[in-house]
Structure formats: structure tokens, C-alpha cells
Design goal:
Blueprint: H1 2-5, H2 9-24, E1 32-35, E2 38-41, H3 47-58, H4 63-71, H5 79-89, H6 93-103, H7 110-115, H8 134-140, H9 142-157, H10 167-172, H11 181-201, H12 207-227, H13 231-242
Antiparallel strand pairs: 1-2
Helix pairs in contact: 5-11, 8-9, 12-13
The structure holds zinc ion.
């Protein structure tokens, strides 16, 4: 009894009301299960449907996802494809992690570091003219913008054409139908990470430095493909750039 008395009165009210509700609703002959879209006889549902229902209850979309959707209102975003893209394009866990940080807006650019008192200025490391947001650093800065122009032109010289290059494609992935889909998205992801690394080092991105970086990645993937006996897939992905190195 002492234990019951120690419970707060509002807890006791909740317990009493839930007991009453159970009395009003006797256990049915056929047990029903509450899925997201209503109650169903348990005999009619599959374990996969129940699993997915639990999954939906546990999954909460990240707040950054809503912010991105709000920012690009005119674009229908397939988030499943966006989240799985880095796993399709690269084996490099650092690159996958970097894209995860972009999608969750947790890349530490100067505007954030300044708010935390960890940078002497919120301005861009490259141009020092505008606050260094993630959008500015990766896309809008005149330095990054020039870098991407050079990258696109280099890709074009090697018969890799990106029809619609824009900010949202750069951030989330380029989903246009193309035989070079994997390579294009890998290069874009590498480019974003390369810009970020240059920023951290306090030096400017260059096409020459970027090509050297891609060459190193090519050789790492070549080594892995050899080990896994997947050389044909590797050469199919990289065939247009092999001659460019
Ligand atoms: Zn800038």
C-alpha cells in the first residue's frame, strides 16, 4: 500500500482510466492488430506488414530533411533514393559519412563555428566576402562555382555530360538518366568533400588537385575490384575517365 500511496495522483488517474477502458473492451475472439492505416485481423496480415508498421512508428524524419524540402519547394524529393545514393556510388565510408552530414546540416562551416566561438569570423574561407554557410561553401561561393565549372568542362571533354547541374542536384545527388550515373554522382560527392577539405586546410580548390584526388580513388577501387573479382564492373564505371588521368 505504501508503494501505491507514493505514486503521484495524476499517474493514479491514468492507471484507473486505462483499467476502465479495458473493461469496456473485451478481448475479441479474433485478435486484431493496429497497423498504421487501421485495425486488421491478425490472420490477414503478414509479419512484414507488422514489422514495417513498427518501423514507421520508430522512424522520425530528421529535422534537416524538412528544412531542405522547404528550401526547394518546387522539387519533388525521393528521400529513399537520396539516402541510399552514397552507398551505391562509393565504397568509401568517409565520403558516405560526409554526405550524411550534408543531409543533416552538420558540416561545420564558419557560420556555425563562429556562433560556437570557434572561428574568428563567420565569413567564407575562400572569398572572405560572405558568411560561410554550407550552400555558400559548396556551391554559391565564386571560388567553388568556378571550380565546378572547370570540373563540368573536364567531364565534358571526356564525354561525360551532366544535363541539369544545379544546387539541389549538387546537394542531394543527380538523378537524371545516364549511363554514367554512378560515376557522375561519385565525382560530385568527391568534389564536395574535396572543397570541404581544402577549406579546412585553408587553401583553394583546383581542378588539377581534384583530378589527382580522383586518380587516387580510382586506384583504391581498382585494388578492391581485383580482390573481389569485379574488375569488369570497375572498368565499366570508370572507362571514360581512365584516359583522362
Ligand atoms: Zn566564398
Amino acid at each position: 500500500m505504501g508503494l501505491v500511496h507514493s505514486l503521484p495522483s495524476d499517474w493514479k488517474t491514468i492507471i484507473r482510466s486505462s483499467v476502465c477502458n479495458n473493461e469496456k473492451r473485451p478481448i475479441p475472439h479474433t485478435p486484431y492488430v493496429n497497423l498504421n492505416c487501421g485495425f486488421f485481423p491478425i490472420s490477414d496480415v503478414t509479419s512484414k506488414q507488422i514489422y514495417n508498421s513498427f518501423l514507421c512508428k520508430k522512424q522520425i524524419p530528421p529535422t534537416a530533411q524538412q528544412k531542405i524540402s522547404d528550401k526547394y519547394l518546387d522539387t519533388i524529393i525521393n528521400w529513399k533514393k537520396v539516402y541510399s545514393l552514397p552507398f551505391r556510388t562509393t565504397l568509401d565510408s568517409k565520403l558516405r559519412e560526409f554526405q550524411y552530414k550534408i543531409l543533416n546540416n552538420i558540416v561545420f562551416t564558419n557560420d556555425k563555428l563562429f556562433r560556437f566561438g570557434l572561428s574568428h569570423s563567420p565569413n567564407c574561407t575562400f572569398c572572405n566576402e560572405e558568411p560561410e554557410s554550407l550552400e555558400h561553401l559548396l556551391s554559391r561561393c565564386k571560388v567553388s562555382s568556378e571550380f565546378w565549372k572547370e570540373v563540368l568542362s573536364w567531364l565534358k571533354e571526356n564525354n561525360i555530360v551532366i544535363e541539369s547541374f544545379n544546387e539541389i542536384g549538387l546537394f542531394l545527388g543527380i538523378f537524371e538518366e545516364s549511363e554514367d550515373f554512378l560515376l557522375i554522382n561519385h565525382v560530385m560527392l568527391l568534389g564536395k568533400y574535396y572543397i570541404y577539405v581544402r577549406k579546412c586546410l585553408g587553401s583553394l580548390p583546383s581542378l588539377r588537385g581534384f583530378i589527382a584526388r580522383i586518380w587516387r580513388v580510382y586506384n583504391i577501387e581498382l585494388h578492391i575490384a581485383r580482390e573481389r573479382n569485379k574488375l569488369a564492373t570497375h572498368f565499366k564505371k570508370w572507362e571514360k575517365l581512365v584516359v583522362a588521368f
